[in-house]
Amino acid sequence: FKQLESKYAVQNGKTSDLFLQMLSIDLFGDLTEKSLKKVKKTEHYNAKRPVLSLVGFIKNWAIVPNLGPEGYEFSKEQIEKITTFFKKYQISVPDKFTQEQLVVYACRVTCMSIPLPGEILTRVSYDDMLYLPLALNLDFPKYDLVFTDESQDFNMNQQILVQKLANKGARTAV
């Protein structure tokens, strides 16, 4: 997190704020307080819970989009993996929505949480503290011995972080 702070202007934030902002721009073309309040009264806002669940699973499973000329984007294979989360984690789809729409929303919110090169990072959630070092391909210090606790509960992202901290041939003590 220190490396993240040193490269970007970091403020705490919520992923739900990004979802609200995305909908406000999509529906009303701006981020005024009035538009943000109006979004909460639309049927689109009913997608909040499943979209935020998907974003959490994307980050916990360390599914990192590629940086392309248009910004961050997920590959077809990554999107297919994200779609499997509906069944695997019993995510319900609200009326008037499809799985595909929710996946698109979740991918967009996830991409919005990753700063583009030269951009200022303005929101960091707990998930982001673990996800962004991988998404931004930050350098990790290397250790010969890495201690972990409750490793049986680690998600994929946390497992990858431990691997990146360990020198080749290092020991991991649990």
Strand content: 5-15%
Q: Tell how many strands the DSSP assignment holds.
A: 4
- Portion of residues in helices? 40-55%
What structural class is derived from the secondary structure elements?
Answer: mainly alpha
Strand order of the largest sheet: 1-2
Principal-axes shape call: globular
The helix count comes to 8
The Rg value, from CA coordinates, equals 18 Å
Please provide a written account of the structure.
This protein has 174 residues and is mainly alpha-helical. 50% of the residues lie in helices and 11% in strands. The chain is built from 8 helices and 4 strands. It has helices spanning 2-7, 15-28, 33-39, 48-60, 76-88, 99-112, 126-135, 156-165, and strands at 66-68, 71-73, 143-147, 166-173. The protein has a two-stranded antiparallel sheet. Strands 3-4 form a two-stranded parallel sheet. Helix 8 (156-165) links the parallel strand 3 and strand 4. Helix 2 (15-28) packs across helix 4 and helix 2 packs across helix 6. The radius of gyration is 18 Å and the shape is globular. The two termini are 22 Å apart. Mean pLDDT is 88; it is low at 1-12.
